[in-house]
Amino acid sequence: MSRKKTEAEEIVNDCYEKYYQSIYKYCYARLGDLNEHAYDCVQDTFLVLQKKLSEEIDIEHLRGFLYRTADTFVMRAKDHYKKQVQRTAQLDEAERKESPPIIADSFDYDKCAAMLVALLSCEEQELYEMKYIERIPLTEIAERLNISTPAAAKRTSRLRQRIKELVKQQRLFENEVIM
Questions:
Q1: How many domains, in total, are found in the chain?
Q2: Considering all CA atoms of the chain, what is the largest pairwise distance in Å, rounded to the nearest integer?
Q3: Which of 41, 57, 93, 147 registers the highest number of CB atoms within 10 A of its CB?
Q4: DSSP states of 103-153 as a string?
Q5: Which domain holds residue 107?
């Protein structure tokens, strides 16, 4: 081991004995609710001191250097905590937005469907029966209606849109949704 390295270790050990408690108390007080991170901040502070001294960087005021370094780690811990809280809040918000409403168990879907079908035209009712009740593929629906498959797909799409409009107009789910 070189003489410089031994000197650096002695300085770090002396500083550790002299300043550990006061640096720890400083970090603990500055971190407030995050005081469980105080120990890490102190350890990181002394690691930086050891690194600087082993790189033969001259530190004029060791005590001041230790407090400035500890303060840097305290600020990093606070920033990390703030970012973590923001991410958690963003995830909670996204979860609330993406969660579908819960429909009451007593809601009568068959009654709702019958009411909607009654509001459709005869052609729409026929298409509804084939597509959603009998579950017939679009190609067969197209054959039965004597139209092309793309035309059957377009009609089915229009039917879905019409049903959505009717649901909004009739306000079918207003009382059944629990937020």
A1: 2
A2: 98
A3: 41
A4: EPTT--HHHHHHHHHHHS-HHHHHHHIIIIIS---HHHHHHHHTS-HHHHH
A5: 102-178
Instruction: Give the pairing type, strands 177-178 and 102-103.
Output: antiparallel
Question: For the domain that residue 115 is a member of, what is the CATH number?
Answer: 1.10.10.10
Entry pTM: 0.49
Distance CA 49, CA 23 (A): 13
> Do 86 and 145 fall within a single domain?
no
Amino acid identity, residue 134? E
The reply to whether 64 and 114 lie within a common domain is no
> Could you give the C-alpha distances from 166 to 62, 77, 128, 160, in angstroms and in order?
76, 54, 14, 10
DSSP 99: S
Q: Are 145 and 152 in contact (CB under 8 A)?
A: yes
C-alpha closest to that of 118 among 175, 168, 156, 163:
163
pLDDT in tens, 151-167: 888 989 899 898 888 88
Q: Round to whole Å and give the CA distance between 58 and 11.
A: 12
What residues does 103 pair with on adjacent strands?
A: 177
Q: What are 115-134's pLDDT values in tens digits?
A: 888 888 999 999 999 988 89
Q: Which residue has the tokens 């039917």?
A: 159
